[in-house]
Amino acid sequence: MSGPDFTSAFGSRLDEYVEFKRAMGFNGASRIWYLRRFDAYCAEHALGIFDQETVEGWVTAQLATSGRYRSWMSYIRDFGRWLRARGQTDAYVLSDQWKARFVPAHPYLLTQREIEAFFSAAAQLDTSSPWRWQAVAFFALMHSCGIRTCEARGLLAEHVDLSSPHIDVLWSKGNRSRRLPVTDDLTEVLAACNDASSSRFGQSRKSFFVSSTGNPVTPAAVGVTFNRIWDEAGLARPAGAQRPRPYDFRHHFAYANLERWMAQGIDVAAMLPYLSTYMGHGSVDSTYYYVHTSPDFMDSYAHITAEGGSPLPEVGFE
After folding, report:
1. CA distance 160 to 186
2. Predicted local confidence at residue 302, as pLDDT
3. Exposed, middle or buried: residue 291 (CB in 10 Å: 0-12, 13-18, 19+)?
4. Looking at the whole model, is its pTM more than 0.85?
5. Would you give the end-to-end CA distance of the chain in angstroms?
6. What are the residue boundaries of the structural domains of the chain, listed by start?
7. Is the pLDDT confidence value at 106 over 60?
């Protein structure tokens, strides 16, 4: 980030902070966008002390236009901690009382019929954009490996090894990188997608999934493509209930594995650490959420979360 981006009294420190985060692998544009808003607010009001009045004043002003989402507060809270760590001990760290109550999204539970119809329509997608050949691969990767939408979008061509075969998900949520094996069927789909993209954009393209300009696909493009395929498959959208989203392929991956293990008589509690690691969760506690996504599964395994104990051994998983 260049100097002129920040113009308030905190400009030089904001530059240093952003560079520090970049060096740590955090390159998200959202952080910079909100810090610029904070910087503009401070410049407008001639604020030069990073105290409670300054920080909470901006937060209050920001809340008037941001709606119910408060994830952006973590950026200004982290900046305060960073200032303290660098000797500014009187820097204010935004209180946790500003945190919004966590309300998890309710997944749309995909049926096997819907999944089959979706991929049948994806294979016949009539468009001039690269989605014509990469739609099946993109959503099949989410369906078969349970990766996040942002992880599929951020996948680089060099992170897809079709000879092993596996994919490398690097610098994911919480910087939890992981290597995921892929099946032979999925490898064929990825190989066909790679060949088509290489033919159009050359072997040196950076991103595995690309837009018409050769850039990484955007979140909006993923959503638009998903909805188009869903509609062309003739699938209904429930009125007054949760609508299907690309992320529901990740949910399906989780609860489909849980139900498969249960049907096979496998100890689900013992398998949860493996599922947690595969999906890139910070802890098994995050994976417990998926126990609640399957009505059939919940009756048999609600005790797993109720007990609150971890199925992990004393050592071995970190």
Report:
1. 12
2. 46
3. buried
4. no
5. 34
6. 3-98, 112-232, 248-307
7. yes
Which residue shows structure tokens 């910070």? 282
By the 8 A CB rule, do 194 and 162 touch? Answer: yes
Q: Which fold has domain 112-232?
A: hpI Integrase; Chain A (1.10.443)
Distance (Å, whole) CA 261 – CA 296 = 13
| Nearest one of 209, 250, 249, 245 to 230, comparing CA atoms | 245
Q: Single out the residue of 200, 204, 208, 148 nearest to residue 178, CA to CA.
A: 148
Phi, psi at 110, each rounded to 5°: -70, 140
Whole-angstrom distance, CA of residue 209 vs CA of residue 212: 10
Cα distance between residue 9 and residue 108, in whole Å: 47
CA distances from 278 to 13, 116, 146, 233, 254 (A): 38, 24, 8, 30, 10
Tens digit of each residue's pLDDT (9 = 90 or more) over 35-64 = 999 999 999 999 999 999 999 999 999 888
Pair of tokens at residue 272:
């949860």
Q: How many Cα atoms occupy the beta-carbon half-sphere of 263 within 13 Å?
A: 7
**Whether 159 contacts 167, CB under 8 Å:** yes
